[in-house]
């Protein structure tokens, strides 16, 4: 029976040699050309800034900043940063006018993430004005500190306080300064823990900490050790259900960063890095095996529920293990990620239209030019975006050039 969510992986697995044609000479020009195409799609009006870092223009600004940090793009650095500033300035003006103060505190869908990226871009440009968006970011901690500041659920990554803490960690990593005081961090952490305890007691859950978002009891939010172990026991055939108590249908299972093993792997990676228990690393490795089998997703090239998001698991495993097998797998998935191509949101029956003059390199030739991929992939509305479109895929390609420094965009477990 045909899998509705992914293509069959027909690649031979690693046999001791990396793929050819995967060097700087192939990837760097492809990244540059893809960025040019992305910038033609990015809206420049403040009325089109909804979506935050997830699928709004602000995510493109982060991608440009991230690429500019890679030494292989030194010639483009100044141009990319100036363009990033133009984009993020529009997003900052948009979120400054946001009437809902709670949405201003959102990481991936609102103001906190936009202010964070603005501070990074300004600092990279050497502008003292980076303090302005940084101050706006810092002031948001009071918004998300109350236990129930969001009726829909206050503790998740996209709009909740876990996301705000994640943004603070990213800022500390990139700016190399303290972002929040120890007391502020403790206050938010205490709110997360107390919120999880209250929900678990209220719903009589066996989970030590339990959270909901819009009425759905999600697995995989901010957890401590007992909850990490409980979550590990929810594994079903190397994967995890998105919702507590759900059973996974093997032929139609979710294998995405946003739902399933590719996202859960980062929790166990962090757990392993902190306490070195081998069972956490083993769980990551099993997740990677499932992603190798079912990660050629039909939802396009993105990092949330696309091929680049799957491939990032291999870069994670490479950093955890040093095993070159995972570089090979990431290379193979990059060949399936849809490059180079022209995107057309007006063609719903096909995700892509091939560029008439693709570069003569084997880098992206293996899966891209098959009729299977052209006919079976979905269209993407925000083709330029960080999480659903090409900006996140560009970040992945840059990390393929520097696997020892690779990190899922805005979510490094190595800090």
UniProtKB/TrEMBL annotation:
Keywords on record: Membrane, Metal-binding, Transmembrane, Transmembrane helix, Zinc
Gene Ontology, cellular component aspect: plasma membrane
TM regions (residue ranges): 105-125
Residues noted as binding Zn(2+) in the record, renumbered to the chain: 258, 304-305
One of the protein's GO biological processes: peptide modification
UniProt keyword Zinc present: yes
GO molecular function annotation: metal ion binding
Keyword Amino-acid biosynthesis: no
Family (UniProt): Belongs to the LanC-like protein family.
Protein name, per record: LanC-like protein 3
């Amino acid at each position: 029976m045909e899998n509705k969510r992914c293509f069959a992986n027909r690649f031979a697995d690693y046999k001791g040699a990396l793929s050819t044609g995967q060097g700087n000479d192939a990837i760097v020009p492809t990244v540059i050309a893809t960025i040019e195409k992305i910038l033609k799609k990015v809206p420049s009006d403040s009325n089109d800034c909804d979506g935050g870092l997830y699928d709004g223009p602000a995510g493109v600004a982060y991608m440009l900043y991230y690429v500019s940090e890679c030494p292989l793009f030194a010639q483009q650095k100044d141009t990319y940063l100036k363009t990033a500033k133009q984009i993020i300035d529009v997003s900052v003006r948009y979120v400054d006018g946001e009437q809902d103060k709670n949405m201003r505190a959102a990481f991936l869908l609102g103001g906190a993430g936009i202010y964070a990226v603005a501070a990074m871009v300004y600092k990279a440009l050497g502008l003292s004005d980076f303090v302005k968006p940084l101050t706006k970011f810092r002031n948001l901690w009071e918004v998300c500190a109350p236990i129930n500041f969001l009726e829909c659920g206050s503790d998740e990554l996209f709009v909740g306080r876990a996301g705000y803490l994640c943004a603070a960690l990213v800022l500390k990593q990139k700016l190399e300064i303290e972002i929040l005081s120890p007391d502020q961090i403790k206050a938010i952490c205490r709110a997360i823990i107390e919120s999880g305890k209250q929900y678990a007691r209220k719903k009589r859950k066996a989970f030590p900490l339990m959270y909901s978002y819009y009425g759905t009891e999600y697995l995989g939010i901010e957890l401590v050790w007992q909850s990490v172990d409980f979550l590990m026991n929810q594994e079903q055939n190397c994967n995890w259900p998105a919702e507590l108590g759900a059973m996974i249908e093997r032929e139609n299972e979710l294998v995405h960063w946003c739902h399933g093993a590719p996202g859960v792997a980062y929790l166990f990676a962090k757990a392993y890095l902190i306490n070195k228990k081998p069972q956490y690393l083993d769980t990551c490795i099993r997740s990677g095996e499932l992603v190798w089998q079912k990660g050629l997703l039909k939802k396009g090239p993105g990092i949330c529920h696309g091929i680049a998001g799957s491939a990032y698991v291999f870069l994670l495993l490479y950093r955890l293990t040093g095993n070159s097998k995972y570089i090979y797998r990431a290379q193979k998935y990059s060949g399936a990620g849809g490059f180079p191509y022209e995107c057309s949101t007006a063609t719903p029956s096909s995700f892509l239209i091939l560029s008439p003059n693709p570069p003569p390199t084997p880098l992206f030739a293996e899966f891209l030019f098959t009729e299977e991929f052209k006919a079976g992939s979905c269209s993407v509305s925000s083709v330029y975006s960080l999480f659903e479109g090409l900006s996140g895929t560009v970040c992945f390609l840059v990390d393929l050039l520097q696997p020892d420094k690779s990190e899922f965009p805005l979510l490094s477990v190595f800090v």
